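Section 3.1: Structural characterization of target chains.
Under the original work plan, the team committed to producing a structural model for every single-chain target entering the pipeline before any wet-lab resources were allocated. The record below documents one such target. The sequence was received from the expression subgroup and is listed exactly as submitted; it comprises 209 residues.
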Amino acid sequence: MTVISPRHGMVLLAAALLTAGCGLGAELDREADPERTGVHATAGADVAAEPSVAPPLEPPTATAPEGCPATGVNVTTGMVNAAMGLRAMPVTITNCGTGEQRVNGYPDVRVRDMNRQPMDVTVLKGTGPIAQMEDPGPHPVTLKPGESARSVFAWRYSAVDPATQRGSGVYVEIAPAPGVARQTVVPEGGLDVGETGLLGTTAWEKVAD
């Protein structure tokens, strides 16, 4: 009969516990992650997936400062840059509210003539058919109070009647996103897109400080 010393027995016992621990750990891993995704849930906590995109513009706050639209953002347009029949105009939204605003994508636009009648203008997401311009594409943009984001509107000149301004987009209604109230702006010189023109837009991009 083999006699095992107490010290040798302790070594064997430790090895057995380590072996059992490895098996127990593997079993717990299988129960926690049966699909072998590599993601383990934390006990007692709900695990929620991170959103892939930012939510649309947040609902307006009830305490918008005086002079700030109910949406919490203000829309302005810059000077029209005209070259060889190609037009480009910056459009800026500024968070004039008291909380953060989030946008993701392209402006929502409607063009009206001098009589405020809707014009037959196709508004594009991107500028490809009009000109090759840098477009950041849809991505989450968070604006703190006072911060701004910008889109560029692009179009090609189309015939406009100088007497009646027929074919000119005098009033342009712009919203940061579909479903948000549009604001009406009157760009200097109007949008000479014609009666059946194309209007390209780039996605909102945060304006650097």
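Confidence is low (pLDDT under 50) at residues 1-34, 36-55, 58-62.
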